[in-house]
């Protein structure tokens, strides 16, 4: 059956606190608006109170000893079952995400594939975490190191991957024995409730099938925007914090929480760059660039923002990219036209962005950039009917963005690309390494040039002949150098942020060998 959101008679979404769905006592609520139909409000999201956040934290702290004591074998079984729950509800999750976040059904499928893949990758760590034993260093001392959970984990996640990012972080924390208080984006409450319900169902299954009672405070989900996020991140019971979102907010959260002695993992983003070499496959480069700017409406931390193109092929690349934009189709995420565009080579789906705030922010940055001397080289206009109905942004290519321009260092997070000419690969690498970001791409048929680029750019993700956006589970992924804290985010090692090493020194008295009574006989 389709997922039915937990709401009260006032159309207010409930929170999941210590094993129970319940109304929030919040005084303030935020509308959940369908981005393709901006006059349709799906419900109202509670700005969870500080007292409710505190209650969730107290419950998590109380549940920690019993949850950490559950065997790793049972934890692994619980979360492998969670993957099966996600498979069973795949279509429901697709529809839910597409309706309230805006992205296409194909894009939602990618989100779910990644979510389930990461859960299947991380769940076995309940059994597979290993400690170390040190060789004999000194007489009378034996040493070992163990991995142990940290305690209460606070997890704050964004809107753009409503299922994959939350499940990756929540399961990584829980399977290693931590308890969790989760604050998802206020823009996707129904998708977030569906995730929480799937986790709760897996806990119920554990009791019925495994005889394991999961303590009620093991997992809670609160809701809201800035104030609940601050309450979660700064609560004194929190031992570790995972934040995924904008760089400005992430850096502020990191500074505050780290100053309070919490272990912080963050994934924020920056300016991702696509370099078109003089020996590039121009047609391929143009297709990859346009795809990378339209998928998810450009709202990915891996979306390319700037093209650096060798001067000798610049106009050829721009002409090819503009030609590709003729294949852009705009419409609501669940629509048939979007499904056709996603399934047809040469076509590109461009759904609405997630909210009125995001829509206004992107258009404002375009205007500010132009006011600072940039020019719009090309724009795909939004049809009047769609513009009147939803939060659609015109696909836009901008030139002449210098160091003083807002788009030189501000991540736009939308279907807007910056076009810049460079002299050669050396200048491209210099520009890339002076900026903060996760991804750098190169298109070149000269594999020596590609290898030089790969070795030289200071990015944690590099694509050769690809678009740079998205990531495969069971691989290393994560921003560094200001784009994140460098922790792996998609393979089994991502659990390491939720555990600590404990080294034990044991003294002993060496056993004395008995004297040989037969000595000398």
Question: What tags apply to this protein structure?
Answer:
single chain; 521 residues; alpha/beta; Aldehyde Dehydrogenase, Chain A, domain 1; Aldehyde Dehydrogenase, Chain A, domain 2; seven-stranded mixed β-sheet; five-stranded parallel β-sheet; 17 helices; 39% helix; globular
Task: Note down, in words, how this protein is organized.
The protein has 521 residues and is an alpha/beta fold. The protein has 2 domains: 17-268 and 484-505, Aldehyde Dehydrogenase, Chain A, domain 1 (3-Layer(aba) Sandwich); 272-464, Aldehyde Dehydrogenase, Chain A, domain 2, CATH 3.40.309. The protein is built from 17 helices and 21 strands. The strands form 6 sheets. The protein has a 7-stranded mixed sheet with strand order 16-17-18-13-12-19-20, with helices on both faces. Strands 9-8-7-10-11 form a 5-stranded parallel sheet, sandwiched between helices. The protein has a 3-stranded antiparallel sheet with strand order 5-6-21, with no helix packed on it. Strand 3 and strand 4 form a beta hairpin. Helix 2 (72-88) packs antiparallel against helix 4 (105-122), helix 2 (72-88) packs across helix 7 and helix 10 (282-294) packs across helix 11. The protein starts with 14 loop residues before the first strand and ends in a 14-residue tail after the last strand. 51% of the residues are buried. The mean pLDDT is 94.
């Amino acid at each position: 059956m389709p997922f039915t959101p937990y709401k009260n008679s006032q159309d207010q979404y409930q929170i999941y606190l210590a094993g129970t769905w319940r109304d929030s006592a919040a005084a303030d609520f935020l509308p959940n608006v369908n981005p393709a139909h901006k006059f349709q409000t799906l419900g109202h999201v509670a700005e969870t109170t500080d007292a409710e956040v505190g209650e969730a934290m107290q419950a998590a702290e109380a549940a920690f000893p019993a949850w950490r004591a559950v065997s790793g074998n049972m934890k692994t079984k619980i979360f492998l079952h969670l993957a099966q729950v996600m498979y069973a509800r795949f279509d429901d999750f697709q529809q839910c995400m597409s309706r309230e976040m805006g992205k296409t059904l194909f894009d939602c499928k990618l989100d779910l594939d990644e979510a389930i893949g990461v859960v299947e990758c991380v769940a076995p760590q309940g059994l597979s975490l290993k400690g170390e034993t040190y060789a004999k260093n000194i007489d009378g001392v034996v040493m070992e190191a163990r991995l142990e959970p940290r305690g209460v984990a606070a997890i704050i996640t964004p809107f753009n991957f409503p299922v994959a990012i939350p499940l990756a972080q929540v399961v990584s924390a829980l399977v290693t024995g931590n308890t969790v208080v989760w604050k998802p984006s206020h823009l996707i409450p129904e998708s977030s409730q569906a995730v929480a319900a799937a986790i709760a169902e897996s806990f119920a299954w554990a009791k019925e099938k495994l005889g394991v009672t999961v303590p009620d405070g093991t997992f809670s989900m609160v809701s809201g925007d800035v104030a609940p996020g601050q309450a979660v991140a700064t609560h004194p019971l929190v031992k570790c914090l995972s934040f995924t979102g904008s760089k400005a907010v992430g850096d502020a959260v990191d500074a505050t929480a780290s100053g309070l002695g919490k272990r912080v993992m963050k994934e924020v983003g920056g300016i991702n760059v696509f370099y078109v070499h003089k020996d590039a496959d121009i047609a391929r480069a143009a297709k990859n660039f346009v795809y990378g700017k339209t998928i998810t409406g450009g709202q990915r931390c891996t979306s390319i923002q700037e093209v650096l193109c060798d001067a000798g092929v610049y106009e050829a690349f721009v002409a090819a990219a503009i030609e590709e934009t003729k294949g852009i189709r705009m419409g609501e995420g669940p629509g048939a036209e979007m499904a056709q565009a996603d399934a047809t080579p040469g076509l590109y789906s461009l759904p609405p962005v997630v909210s009125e705030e995001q829509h206004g922010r992107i258009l404002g940055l375009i205007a500010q950039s132009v006011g600072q001397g940039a020019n719009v080289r090309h724009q795909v206009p939004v049809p009047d009917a769609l513009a009147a109905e939803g939060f659609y942004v015109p696909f836009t290519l901008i030139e002449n963005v210098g160091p003083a321009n807002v788009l030189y260092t501000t991540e736009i997070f939308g279907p807007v690309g910056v076009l810049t000419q460079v002299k050669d690969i050396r200048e491209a690498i210099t520009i890339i390494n002076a900026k903060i970001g996760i991804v750098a791409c190169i298109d070149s048929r000269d594999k020596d040039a590609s290898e030089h680029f790969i070795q030289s750019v200071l990015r944690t993700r590099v694509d050769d002949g690809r678009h740079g956006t998205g990531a495969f589970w069971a691989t290393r992924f994560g921003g560094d150098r200001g784009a994140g804290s460098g922790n792996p985010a998609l393979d089994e090692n991502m659990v390491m942020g939720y555990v600590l090493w404990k080294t034990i020194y044991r003294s002993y008295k060496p056993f004395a060998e008995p004297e040989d009574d037969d000595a000398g006989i």
